[in-house]
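Protein modeling request. Please complete all fields; requests missing the sequence field cannot be processed.
Requester role: graduate student
Desired output: 3D structure, token encoding
Chains: 1
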Amino acid sequence: MTEQFEILASLEAEQSVLGAILIDNDSANLLTDLTPNNFFSEKNGLIFKTAMSMISDGLPVDVITLDAELGKRGLSEETGGLAYLIDLHQNTPSAANVGRYARLVSESAAERELRFAAEQIERLATERDGRSIADRQAEAVALLDKISGTAAGRSEEMSYEDAIRATLHHWERISETDGMLGFSTGFSNLDEATGGLQRGNLTVIGARPGMGKSVLAENIARHCAKNGLSVRFQSYEMSGVELTQRGASAEYAIDYGRLKKYRMTQTETDNFALYINKARNWKFVINTEMIGIDTIAARCRLEKRKSGLDLLVVDHLHLMPRKGVNEVAELDDITARLKRLAMELQIHVLLVAQLNRATEKQADKRPSLADLRGSGGIEQNANLVLMPYREGYYDSEAPQGTAELIIAKNRDGERGVLDLTWEGQYQRFGEYEYYN
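Delivered output (436 residues):
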């Protein structure tokens, strides 16, 4: 960073950290959270990186050995040579306070990041290059999230005893919920196979057009909202009106064709009124703007802080705005970021994705993971991949009221195929009842 940030640096603390290492190599054990980038002085950062690398390799570090290593790496001139190392050693009174020195260095680095972010946000506020205010706000939120993560310095480590204790607590929680680890999907056989939609996880619903992937996503989202969960539905295909109509049709068996034209029977009209009264207080946010992953993440973070959020549905991945430079890389990035968002906010993300056309050319048109369009990252980042399939869509002589739900990937359980019913006139899937 430039000279304007020097006031936010503690060069004495940086030098004392390096001096403490030279005095007592064991001081490095207290510096595991410090990185070379935390140092304002580039030469101090280079010396720290070299010293920590030597200690990691089991090599002793003193003014002579460190000078020799810096020379071997071609860094002697830009790090001040032997004279500077001697000054570091002589001007550090003791290694006892190395922890305090390290905190001063990391806190100064956090202050510089905060100052830098403030300047970038000011630039975004006055930018006039045609970008929307929503995009600029999303970038500003991303900057703040980055510095808050740096400042938090969160550690996820635990002793093995703590891990055992956490495992026992985990089992106790499972026993209290009959094996349900997450939210119910509304399909008991799917819940049984997966343990429900778990916080921190990403589920992908992948299918070809006409299979009902958006219907399945809506069915699950509505079931979660009915059960008091907070749902955000990001739709790139359907308006809020369409989603509401589909929900009413599915919930009260109202013929979807008649509902869209508002030519319902009196019973259906009464049921639609019941649905409106029932659903008006659900925590169900619908967004139909053509926004990218940055803005989605920013709005989810805001909603989580202000009112809570449990489930994010994105319908669908391949319609999300992208730069169009490299489809595979961009889809990989989006799915990875949605997975990280699920983990960060402890929500579940349900992502609808389209399959490629390869299944259309096969005799058996049932899809597989290889058919996920354009990205191996979709499969890699997903905890669960569900693929609805309706044989009746391709074969008019096949049963029209049945469907399969293929569990193509299940990181926490077994894969398999579940039988469902399909009621297209009501925009819903249902449980399949077996008769002896």
